Amino acid sequence: MSKGKRVAAPPPLLIDDTNLSRAWGRLLLHVLDGAGTEVAPLILSLSGFEADGTAAEDATVRQSLDRLLKRKGRRSGRCRVHALPAAALGHVARG
């Protein structure tokens, strides 16, 4: 029985930030610097939420990301934030 070559999975990309738009920007830069269009595995850790439970954002970075996504025919980050488990958990925690 022959042994096939094993392909090692890449190490996870860890993005740890206190600002949601900056974290998305860091992820985008990673994708642009890489060879593909997806990042797996990805660990995104977001802390430093506002008093009302929303994530801190940088309006300039957010607008730039939204313009880029629109040019590429993608939904804005505003739509995608709800795909993040942290956002969903934040909604549950706030009631």
What does this structure look like?
This protein is mostly helical. The protein contains 4 helices and 2 strands, in the order E-H-E-H-H-H. Strand 1 (13-17), helix 1 (20-33) and strand 2 form a beta-alpha-beta unit. The protein is flat and about 60 Å long. A two-stranded parallel ribbon has the order 1-2.
Mean pLDDT: 78
Count of strand segments: 2
Strand content: 5-15%
Measure the end-to-end span. Answer: 57 Å
Would you list the SSEs in sequence order as H and E? EHEHHH
Radius of gyration: 16 Å
Please summarize the sheet with the most strands.
Answer: 2 strands, parallel
Read across the widest sheet, the strand sequence of neighbours is: 1-2
Uncertain residue segments: none
Q: Share of helix among residues?
A: 40-55%
Backbone structural class: mainly alpha
Count every helix, treating DSSP H or I runs of 4 or more residues as helices: 4
Overall body shape: flat
Q: What's this entry about, in short?
A:
This protein has 95 residues and is mainly alpha-helical. The chain is built from 4 helices and 2 strands. Strands 1-2 form a two-stranded parallel sheet.
